[in-house]
Amino acid sequence: MQNLSVLSINVSSPKSFSVIIKVCVVIPFFCVFLCIIAVMLQIFASHKQFLDTSRYILFAHMLINDTLQILSSVLLFLCVMGQVKLPLLFCVPLLFVCTCTFQNTTLILAAMSLERYVSIFYPLQRPASWRSDRIWIITLPLWIISFIFAIIELFIGNHSPTVDVLSTSTLCKPTVVNQSPIQGVYRFAVYVLSFAVVSVIILFTYMRIVMETRKMRQDRASVSKAMHTVLLHGFQLLLCLLAFTQPISETLIGLHTNWPAEDVAFFNFFCFILIPRFLSPLIYGFRDQSLRKHIGNRFLRLGMCSPAKFQPLNS
Question: What is the value of pTM for the model shown?
Answer without folding.
Answer: 0.82
